[in-house]
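pls design
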């Protein structure tokens, strides 16, 4: 695996946000620089847009793009509940925007007016999904004031989300499962153990992860498949030991599949908006570089 080629690609092609993430993760960069780059994608309502999620160029705030911001906040190790970015997200989630009373919308109507991947096209009366709701609930419970109405709302939503998970177990959609893993991790790190049965949640997630993982590794290089890195980011994960050998295999897979330019293959594409997809594909290459090298650093270093 060629670290220098990966670095060279980020330096030449990455967005300011990608560059700031790279610097923080691999070159002792500044958390403040990363948060400053992230703030450029935040709207006045506190939500995020502007193609923070590269497959959706909608500048308006949406739950999914806001969820991406929460993942970068987690990556930065930000714990300050009073930070303006965190407070903005909490305000957006408390506002009721893009919320049906139980879940935040996976896709919003204004997506259709901007370049986007087909899976972000809004259609009326979509099926209920907890992607990204489950993870957003975890963010609320981690960062909202415990005496606030929003925290109370998050507590009720967590119980609803878990009831849905149990009644639909096993889920078929890997990203929804990843959102539930993120909810579990936020509950665990916040020592919130009285809302749901955490041991039961953990056991169900163990079997759920096994259900959605793509065990046929011959597909990993050519298809959009489910690999352990979607759920397990470090050896401290509660789900690492049960998947240790598959995690190690993914380390080998990453090391052996780097492209000559330092990137990794993007295994999906848009049917429409070819010019915008060409740009987004380049953004995804930077994302995959960061994701893969972070995984190697945590799991195999």
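designed seq:
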């Amino acid at each position: 695996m060629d670290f220098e080629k990966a670095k060279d690609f980020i330096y030449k092609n990455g967005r300011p946000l990608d560059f700031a993430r790279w610097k923080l993760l691999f070159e002792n960069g500044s958390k403040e620089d990363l948060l400053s780059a992230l703030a450029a994608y935040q709207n006045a309502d506190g939500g995020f847009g502007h193609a923070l999620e590269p497959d959706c160029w909608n500048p308006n705030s949406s739950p999914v793009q806001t969820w991406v911001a929460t993942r970068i906040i987690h990556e930065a190790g930000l714990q300050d509940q009073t930070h303006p970015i965190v407070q903005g997200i909490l305000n957006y989630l408390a506002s009721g925007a893009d919320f049906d009373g139980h879940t935040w919308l996976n896709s919003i109507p204004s997506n259709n007016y901007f370049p986007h991947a087909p899976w972000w096209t809004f259609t009326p009366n979509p099926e209920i999904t907890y992607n990204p709701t489950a993870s957003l609930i975890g963010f609320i419970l981690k960062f909202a004031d415990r005496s606030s109405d929003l925290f109370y709302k998050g507590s009720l939503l967590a119980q609803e989300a878990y009831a849905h998970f149990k009644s639909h177990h096993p889920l078929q959609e890997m990203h929804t499962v990843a959102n539930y893993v993120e909810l579990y991790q936020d509950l665990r790190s916040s020592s919130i153990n009285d809302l749901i049965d955490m041991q039961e949640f953990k056991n169900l997630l163990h079997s759920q992860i096994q259900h959605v993982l793509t065990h046929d590794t011959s597909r990993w290089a050519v298809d959009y498949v489910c690999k352990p890195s979607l759920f397990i980011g470090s050896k401290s994960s509660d789900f690492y030991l049960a998947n240790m050998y598959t995690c190690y295999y993914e380390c080998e897979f990453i090391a052996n599949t780097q492209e000559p330019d330092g990137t990794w293959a993007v295994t999906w594409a848009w049917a429409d908006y070819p010019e915008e997809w060409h740009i987004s594909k380049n953004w995804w290459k930077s994302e995959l570089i960061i994701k893969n090298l972070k995984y190697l650093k945590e799991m195999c270093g």
